[in-house]
Amino acid sequence: MTNKELADLLLPGVSSDIEYYEKKYPERNLDKNAIVTRFAPSPTGFVHMGSLLTAFIERKAAKDSNGIFYLRIEDTDQKRKVENGIEGIIDDLKNFEIEIDEGAISETEEVGQYGPYVQSKRKEIYQTYVKYLIEQGLAYPCFCSHEEIEQTRQIQEKRKQRIGYYGRFAKCRRLTMDEIAQKVKNGEPYIIRFKSPGSFDNKIKIHDLIRGDIEFPENDIDDVIMKSDGLPTYHFAHVIDDHLMHTTHVIRGDEWVSSLPKHIQMFKLMGFEPPKYAHISPIMKEEDGKKRKLSKRKDPEAAVSFYHEKGIPVEAVKLYLMTLANTNFEQWYDCNKDKTIDDFKFDFKKVSASGGLFDVTKLYNISKNYISYLKAEDVYNMALTWACEYDKQFAQVLENNKEFAINLFNIEREQKKPRKDYSCFSDIKNQIWYMFDEFYKDVDNYEFQLINDKEEINKILKLYMDKYYSNSDDKDAWFNKIKELSGELGYAKEVKEYKNNPDMYKGHVGDVSTVLRVALTSKSTTPDLYEIMKLLGKDKIFDRYNKFMKN
Ligand code: GLU
Fold first, then answer.
1. N or C: more exposed end of the chain, with fewer CB within 10 A?
2. Rounded to the nearest 5 degrees, what angle is found at the Cα of 68, between the Cα atoms of 64 and 73?
């Protein structure tokens, strides 16, 4: 039996005309340095922050170089597939505005000339290349059962030998054509392995864009390329897809570093030019002074849904991802506050080889800073969008009081140093609820400070309403009145005065305005009191003070 006959026996009805696909997917017409890269997740559910970072880096590298970023769904392991897995990935990319140029856009649709972009739909393509390899004498069927493979593994382990199907352990590589024919005739199930031309004693160097040159022993394992269900393994699909889709850069998790010798070997065996590789280390987290991987199980922030639920603006998450992606970004951004991520050039050399350290506090600070520079109307719209999904009652209140809420968000905003109070949209209600009667009506805990005697408080409030309140005062006039009020009741009009002669006064103007603030909002810290009073207006102020006095 010739190799060609063997190929026909193993894959009847399958073409081995690889030229058909080589022509069907021609070189891409792009600039010389354009990066073509892909996000290639398996639809196993739950996109992890680490994969989002990888996708973000891929998108950024492609965009910076006028290249292509595409989404390929790697679903050859049908057992691990979860329902709506593809939709979940697409939604997560959309939610974080990581746009794809090509690839799956829904469970059934895709865009781009290099598809199908879902591996389970590419079975025919892989089989064509498998058949071609068998015809060339570069691949063979393996009839070893799981039990036999397991037995070999145990022997290797016991003898402290390398694990795998290589050298004299590669039993089926030595089968004669007749033996193969007989086994096929008997209906014995088989998989296909490629014939590794490597020798473990040879050392090779492979360049990684993040890690630099890495030395490996050459691969000598005859790895599986086609499984018994006719689908390829990850390794083979990677080689075929990244070749046919003209990927220039494979950017992926570092769990694949150890497979590099095998992948490079397979590319060469096929006669394809290998892509460049960049392996991203997992995101780390510091706990009790020790570093560990950010964990799905232990860290809520590892799930990308966390950011959505908290209401952290997408742009802020992206800024944070950029700080994780390139160690020099933060400094650049500090000096270029008016610029955006698009103005920053991603650099593989500035990716941490040991893994970016995840710091939630830093993320919240970035988010707080970002929100503080938004326009009040944008804060309103984003907060409303968040609330519609996560806090219906708050959404209703925002909707019913649109102008009021925008004016409220506008306090101490759009100025050189805006007020930084919200780290995320889920923070907002906690900080401003007292401005809305809907939330204020049941208040019973007041944060009074120095002046906390009910009678004294009532006296201040009454005098303020009777003599000093005016709705037409500007801020200076308003504050002067509070000083007058303070003086009248025996408090120092200036803090300095009080500090110089503390025995002469009951307190100072600041203590009095705290009373006015707390009796109005129940809180001892709020945005600017003058602005708050202006917004609430006379009726509400008097109503709240009168109610307080009566209680
Ligand atoms: N499907 C592989 C994974 O999820 C992709 C690795 C790659 O990007 O090539 O790990």
1. C
2. 130
Which of the listed residues 52, 53, 74, 231 should we mutate to test ligand 1's pocket, taking the one with most ligand atoms within 8 A of CB?
74
> What is the rounded distance in angstroms from the CA atom of residue 487 to the CA atom of residue 51?
63
Residue 22 lies in a domain: no
Residues 258, 401: one domain? no
pLDDT tens across 422-459, in order? 999 999 999 999 999 999 988 989 999 999 999 999 99
Q: Which atom of ligand 1 is nearest to the CA of 252?
A: 8
Residue 371 clears pLDDT 90, i.e. is over it: yes
Q: Which domain holds residue 472?
A: 454-550
Instruction: Tell me if 77 CB under 6 Å of ligand 1.
Output: no
Write the burial class of residue 551 (CB in 10 Å: 0-12 exposed, 13-18 middle, 19+ buried): exposed
Residue for token pair 């856009």: 105
**pLDDT score recorded for residue 551:** 84
CB 218 within 8 A of CB 202: yes
Are 206 and 264 in contact by the 8 Å Cβ rule? The answer is yes
Q: Are residues 149 and 244 in the same domain?
A: yes
Task: Give residue 151 CA to ligand 1 midpoint distance, Å.
Answer: 29
